Amino acid sequence: MGSLLINNSSSLHMLTGVSLSRFSDTLISLEALDKRDKINPPERAPGGGRHKKLNIASQLLLSLIYNYVGTKHEDLGKLFNIDNSNVSRYNKRICNWLEELEFKFPEQNQELTFERVQELFKSLERTGHYVAVKELVD
């Protein structure tokens, strides 16, 4: 389970509304679903299709921030260094799995400004606790 490297639980909770233990448990379940879905992938030519830029932990973090704070696609694209058109793809993929797991999103918190979201996100990177997206943060 090398993709989970978050230890800064207060920043994580402020960004997503979930605790570190809930994030960890959810991530383990999502990784199992991802492995299951890779057993019967859609038919493509060998090596065909785009490879995902974000790992499952990053996708989960993106989805939780989007659904908890309501951050715009453009802003999330900047945070995760992806095109904003991919934000909804990642979010939809994770939300479909979360629905399968009967995951309940925390009630939305729209009091956080994007500047505060950036600070919290960078604090995960600066302390080395969220290495999965460390290289993506400016």
Give the topology, please.
Layout: H1 9-16, H2 20-39, H3 56-69, H4 73-80, H5 84-100, H6 114-126
Helix pairs in contact: 1-6, 3-5, 4-5
General description of the model:
By secondary structure, the chain is mainly alpha-helical. The chain has 6 helices and no strands. It has helices at 9-16, 20-39, 56-69, 73-80, 84-100, 114-126. Helix 3 (56-69) crosses helix 5 and helix 4 crosses helix 5. The longest helix is centred in the first third of the chain and has 20 residues, at 20-39. It is globular, with a radius of gyration of 15 Å. The chain starts with 8 loop residues before the first helix and ends in a 12-residue tail after the last helix.
Globally, the shape reads: globular
Beta percentage is under 5%
How far the N terminus sits from the C terminus, by CA atoms, comes to 26 Å
Helix/strand-derived class?
mainly alpha
Main sheet attributes: strand count, strand direction, barrel closure: none
Order of helices and strands: HHHHHH
Feature tags:
58% helix; 0% strand
How would you sum up this structure in a few lines?
The protein is mostly helical and 138 residues long.
